Amino acid sequence: MTGRTVLRITGDTPRRRGEDRGRRAAAAIARAWRVYDELFATVAAGSAGSAGSAASAGISASAGISGAARPLDVRALALRTVDATRAWAPELVEEMEGVAEGAGLPFWTVAALNARTEILAEAGAPRAGECSTLVRTGLRTTGGQCWDWHEELAGAWHLQTVTGDAQGFAGITEHGILAKIGVNEAGVGVLFNILGHAEDAATGVPVHLVARQVLGTAGSFAEAVGILTGAPVSASTVITVVTADRAASVELAPAGSAVVEPDERGWLTRTNHFLDPSLAAGELRGRREPETYDRHRLLARRVLGHPGPLDPEALVKLLAAHRDDGAEVCCHAPAEGTLGSRWATLATVAVDPAERRLLVHDGGPCTAGPSTWTPLTAPAR
Fold it and tell me: What number of other Cβ atoms are within 10 A of residue 73's Cβ?
């Protein structure tokens, strides 16, 4: 079992839930922010092809998807996403304000953590790695994923249960970020893969907050899909919704949204590129890092030979693929390298929405075994 911290967040208002989170994880949130502050500056400098300097005041050197030099004002970008969020779901802003108050941090730094995907998109961040997801529908829908991220942030995430909103939920998330992967008391689960679109920027509602809204409020598959397709996002992701009897991937991008259904055998296989043809016309990630297609092809071949249910044992066998297998689904950071270049699978997650349960393994699927999973069950309100 993992030795990860389990935060049990409670509160009858968004601000009180935020304050509870901030107090319980103040030191951890501050540490995570220091890494992200450096990461934003490093990515911005690298994208512009210049050395850059640390963003201790919230302003990095230069960035841009095209590589052209321009200021990356992290504080301003974070607050711009706050404006979009306040117009869409003001209670999420109240919760972030509570986190900042509880942790004793400036509000904009908490907003920047929750908008880290959007800010990195604005900076033109490469994503040489990232997540792979498998879901099997049928008599009992189950699924799971690898969560790949920067090795330097391996200590910057935790398990959580959250009560006090319309739906209690459980899951994993990063320090200071309200939610990521999880399942709620109504049996609605979400899995998470970042995408890349040519129009990505930091102007809309952060995708992590969209996931938080689904987990905290969706009482059914239809409600979850409705929340996702109605979210005014500005950075791309695919959130795969799983319930006991259904699943679909909802692709989100500044250009719109699309719902991708399971194939004829009931499988959803997701890596980090668009599957919807209209959104794929603006594909950015796959053009920059075509290994996402390699992972998708490998996993699609593997599931063809797997006729049984997708239990945790089967999940890790399917996901435990390395470069020698033809694609690095289970990602290991190199011993050397700099911040922004050392990708690793930080967690492996299995979800059983019928049981409202997650199993979390600390690390990649190649190290998972019967005794390494930590169970989490979505709490009732």
Answer: 17
Q: Residue 195, Cβ neighbours under 10 Å: how many?
A: 29
For residue 107, report the phi and psi dihedrals to the nearest 5 degrees: -55, -40
How far, in Å, CA of 351 to CA of 181, rounded? 9
- Determine the Cα–Cα distance for residues 358 and 230; give it in Å rounded to an integer: 26
Residue with tokens 């529908």: 137
Is residue 67 classed as helix, strand or coil in its secondary structure?
Answer: coil
Beta carbons within 8 Å of 272's beta carbon, 6+ residues apart:
127, 130, 131, 193, 194, 195, 196, 285, 286, 289, 292, 295
326 φψ region: left (φ > 0), alpha (ψ -120 to 50), beta (else): left
Residue 40: beta bridge partners?
none
The model's pTM? 0.93
pLDDT of residue 380: 85
pLDDT value at 70 more than 80: no
Give dist(CA 56, CA 289) in Å, integer: 30
Do 339 and 150 meet the contact criterion of CB atoms below 8 Å apart?
A: yes
- 3-state DSSP assignment of residue 1: coil
pLDDT > 70 in the chain, percent: 92
Asked whether the predicted pLDDT for residue 32 surpasses 80, the reply is: yes
**Mean predicted confidence (pLDDT) in 172-190:** 98
Neighbouring residues of 351: CB distance < 8 A, sequence distance ≥ 6:
142, 143, 144, 181, 183, 189, 191, 242, 357, 358, 359
Please report the DSSP string for 236-279 in residue order. -EEEEEE-SS-EEEEEEETTEEEEE---TTSEEEE-SS--SHHH
Distance separating alpha carbons of residues 88 and 71, to the nearest angstrom: 27
With a CB cutoff of 8 Å and minimum separation 6, the contacts of 124 are: 43, 44, 47, 63, 64, 65, 66, 67
Percent of the chain with pLDDT over 90: 83
Cα-based torsion angle of the residue sequence 320, 324, 328, 329 in order, rounded to the nearest 10 degrees: -20
Q: Over the stretch 114-141, which tens digit does the pLDDT of each residue have?
A: 999 999 999 887 666 689 999 999 889 9
pLDDT exceeds cutoff 90 at 38: yes
- Packed helices 207-217 and 221-229: angle between N→C axes, nearest 10 degrees: 150
Query: H/E element holding 140?
Result: none
